[in-house]
Amino acid sequence: GAGVSQTPSNKVTEKGKYVELRCDPISGHTALYWYRQSLGQGPEFLIYFQGTGAADDSGLPNDRFFAVRPEGSVSTLKIQRTERGDSAVYLCASSPGGGQPQHFGDGTRLSIL
Amino acid sequence: AQTVTQSQPEMSVQEAETVTLSCTYDTSESDYYLFWYKQPPSRQMILVIRQEAYKQQNATENRFSVNFQKAAKSFSLKISDSQLGDAAMYFCAYKDNYGQNFVFGPGTRLSVLP
Prior knowledge:
Distance between the termini of chain B: 41 Å
CATH class of chain B: Mainly Beta
Helix content of chain A: under 10%
Shape of chain A: globular
Structural class of chain B: mainly beta
Largest sheet of chain B: 6 strands, mixed
Low-confidence stretches of chain A: none
CATH topology of chain B: Immunoglobulin-like
Mean pLDDT of chain B: 93
Number of domains of chain A: 1
Oligomer: heterodimer
CATH topology of chain A: Immunoglobulin-like
Radius of gyration of chain B: 14 Å
Strand content of chain A: over 45%
Largest sheet of chain A: 7 strands, mixed
CATH superfamily of chain A: Immunoglobulins
CATH architecture of chain B: Sandwich
Structural class of chain A: mainly beta
Number of helices of chain A: 0
Number of domains of chain B: 1
CATH superfamily of chain B: Immunoglobulins
Number of strands of chain A: 11
CATH architecture of chain A: Sandwich
Largest interface: A-B, 27 and 23 residues
Number of strands of chain B: 12
Order of helices and strands of chain B: EEEEEEEEEEEE
Helix content of chain B: under 10%
Low-confidence stretches of chain B: none
């Protein structure tokens, strides 16, 4: 059974560049979440999708961050004009909704040089 | 806003012994869910156990059990017969019944000593 898949697993890029991080959730899961996790800390909420719409984007740190989920399945997190402070592991999770737990991917480790 | 606190940044336990990890949370809701997740060095977050706030009975999952004290807003995790593979970061998480957002605590790093 396929779990949550995130690509790439690692991404190294230069300051100022544009990056896209992809998340493929578990089939049938309507809820999709993005988190950012810095070393030694818990996941920090970024954005939550219910279906195709962003139900809560209050965690996005600024307008350089944007995420889409056009068909209610795969989601892409986009970061423009990357800064060194954006370096972190970006986690994606999906859930059937309600009180069901989230299932996480392995994350993308983003390093901004 | 809801918050989750884990007051123990690091814990250690001898193999085969029992350890308890603490978690407290703050909410004005009466209906919610609580979770413990494990994150080994491989990075993937793995669900350990789930508790529904309206259930008074403490959840158990093999060697893992919780002590859920709703009035005190406390949700501790007990690991019995600790194994080397239990070494990981453990995160406590909260989700209310109306929203979909999960709130995570800062984590406790558990070491298991042979």
